Amino acid sequence: MREATERETRLLDAAVVTGGLGPKHSQPHREYHNLMHVEDVLLRIEELQPPSEHELALALAAWFHDAVYQPGQDDNEDRSAYVAYDALEQVGADPELIHEVVRLVRLTASHEPDDDDVAGAVLCDADLAILAAKPERYAHYATAIRQEYVHVPEAEFRAGRVKVLRRFLQRPSIYRTAHAREHWEAKARANMSDEIEALES
Q1: Would you put residue 70 in left (φ > 0), alpha (ψ -120 to 50) or beta?
Q2: Contact 53/94 with Cβ under 8 angstroms?
């Protein structure tokens, strides 16, 4: 990936501060959806090597996609998109960039970009890269998700989690980029299948 320009770096830093993203991602209920997750998504975006024209929007979307995270709520992405819109407008971002970041943030609700959506594919794959982690790290991730849903009774959580995992496994491909399909797909399917087995045992 190319080096970000000084203007892009200033814009990104200003948006993160204006959006209050440091404190937001440090909320005590975030066992997984925290600053470490943001860092990991940014690293995975870099690994996927998107075209340079998408890099700034993707970096901003990585920071903002979980700006609002309340486990069990179905409007987190829409509310996060609003935080992104408001912060980027305040720091004077180009309207076209604002529109793209908002679009990308909302896309993480479904992780189903269109076939020709290059930036959407990169962000969604980066956000789901944890599914292909080494077994020990995947186990830590699964435990963190359970802790975020500590308010949900065990049987209800297990049923809901299995439903989510099976929905991913039923897709023709979990990932949309060629790199992720080649390097992550099989690992992700193995991890999720193992988790389902554990949850149903």
Answers
A1: beta
A2: no
**Cα separation of 175 and 164, whole Å?**
15
Question: Per the domain annotation, does 159 fall within a domain?
Answer: yes
Query: Which tens digit of pLDDT belongs to each residue from 139-188?
Result: 999 999 999 999 999 999 999 999 999 999 999 999 999 999 999 999 99
Do 122 and 59 fall into the same domain?
A: yes
Structure tokens at 26: 């440090």
Answer whether residue 1 is part of any domain. no
Q: How far apart are CA 58 and CA 53, in angstroms?
A: 10
Instruction: Let me know the angle formed at the C-alpha of 112 by 45 and 59, rounded to the nearest 5 degrees.
Output: 25
Distance CA 18, CA 63 (A): 12
- Give exposure, 173-197, as e/b (b: 16+ Cβ within 10 Å): ebbbbeebeeebbebbbebbeebbe
3-class secondary-structure state, position 85: helix
Which of 74, 106, 127 is the last residue in one of the domains?
Answer: 127
Q: Say if residues 31 and 144 touch (Cβ distance below 8 Å).
A: yes
> How far apart (Å, rounded) are the C-alpha atoms in residues 179 and 132?
13
The answer as to whether 11 is a domain residue is yes
pLDDT at 4 over 90: no
Indicate if 65 and 48 belong to the same structural domain. Answer: yes
> How far is residue 52's CA from residue 56's CA, in Å, rounded to a whole number?
8
